[in-house]
Recover the amino acids of this structure.
């Protein structure tokens, strides 16, 4: 999906948790998508847990969770947001105290083209 978004002109996608707000930056504009918030009211933010985040990522990558379950697991791992850079093929996950985990994703083939 990341390569399809890149080909469509999306440069980056930034998610803010727990509000499930997603901002897409494109060559010709910026749009926001408001998802279903993960919680309402006031809540403690969990400490950033890189091991739990990586576990949530691996489950999502092999199709063992829905996207909503991935967002919830990321939030529970102390992730307050993440940013996908489609040209660099990286995703940066952030904690509330400036913690960060970055993961690269591999090039894929779409319509017979390798990127």
């Amino acid at each position: 999906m990341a390569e399809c978004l890149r080909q469509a002109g999306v440069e980056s996608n930034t998610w803010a948790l727990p509000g499930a707000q997603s901002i897409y930056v494109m060559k010709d504009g910026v749009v926001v998508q408001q998802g279903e918030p993960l919680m309402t009211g006031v809540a403690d933010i969990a400490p950033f847990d890189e091991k739990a985040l990586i576990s949530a990522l691996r489950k999502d990558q092999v199709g063992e969770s829905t996207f909503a379950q991935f967002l919830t697991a990321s939030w529970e791992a102390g992730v307050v947001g993440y940013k996908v850079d489609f040209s660099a093929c990286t995703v940066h996950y952030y904690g509330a105290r400036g913690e960060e985990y970055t993961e690269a994703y591999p090039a894929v083939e779409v319509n017979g083209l390798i990127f």
User: Anything to note?
Assistant: The mean pLDDT is 91.
